[in-house]
C-alpha cells in the first residue's frame, strides 16, 4: 500500500514516550485520541513536539498532567497526533 516498509503504529507510540524526558513520571494513565497522519519510513528521523494542556493536583507530591503530542519527521510532517495523561511527581504541583 505504501510502496515500501513502514514502522508499526505502536512502535511510533513507544518512540514518542521514550523521546520525552520522563524522570518525574510516576505512572502512565492514558494515551488517547491517537491519529496516524503519515507513515514513518525506515531511515526517517522523528522527534516529539508537545504542549501541556492541563495540570491537576492530586496531593502534595503528585499531579495529573495532560499533554498533546505530535510525532513529526525530518520534513516537519506530522506523522502521529495523540493526547497523553500521566501522574507526575513534583512539589511545583501544589
Notes on the structure:
Helices cover about 10% and strands about 50% of the residues. By secondary structure, it is mostly beta strands. Strands 1-4-3-2 form a four-stranded antiparallel β-sheet. The N and C termini lie far apart (about 50 Å).
CATH architecture verdict: Roll
| Radius of gyration, CA atoms, in whole angstroms | 15 Å
User: Which residues sit in consecutive blocks of at least 5 with pLDDT less than 50?
Assistant: none
Largest sheet: 4 strands, antiparallel
Shape: elongated
Number of self-contained structural domains: 1
Oligomer: single chain
User: How many helices does DSSP assign?
Assistant: 1
Question: How large a portion of the residues is in β-strands, by DSSP E?
Answer: over 45%
Strand order of the largest sheet: 1-4-3-2
Mean pLDDT across residues: 91
User: Helicity, in percent?
Assistant: 10-25%
Class based on secondary structure composition and strand pairing = mainly beta
- At the fold tier of CATH, the topology name is Thiol Ester Dehydrase, Chain A
Under the CATH scheme, which class? Alpha Beta
Helices and strands in order, then pairings?
Elements: H1 9-19, E1 25-36, E2 46-57, E3 62-73, E4 78-89
Antiparallel strand pairs: 1-4, 2-3, 3-4
Descriptors:
single chain, 94 residues, mainly beta, Thiol Ester Dehydrase, Chain A, 4-stranded antiparallel sheet, 1 helix, elongated
Summary, kept brief:
Helices cover 12% and strands 51% of the residues.
Amino acid at each position: 500500500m505504501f510502496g515500501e516498509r513502514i514502522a508499526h503504529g505502536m512502535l511510533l507510540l513507544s518512540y514518542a514516550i521514550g523521546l520525552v524526558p520522563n524522570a518525574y513520571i510516576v505512572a502512565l494513565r492514558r494515551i488517547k485520541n491517537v491519529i496516524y497522519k503519515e507513515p514513518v519510513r525506515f531511515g526517517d528521523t522523528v522527534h516529539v513536539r508537545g504542549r501541556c494542556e492541563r495540570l491537576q493536583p492530586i496531593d502534595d507530591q503528585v499531579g495529573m498532567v495532560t499533554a498533546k503530542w505530535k510525532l513529526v519527521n525530518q520534513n516537519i510532517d506530522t506523522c502521529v497526533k495523540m493526547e497523553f495523561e500521566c501522574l507526575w511527581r513534583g512539589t511545583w504541583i501544589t
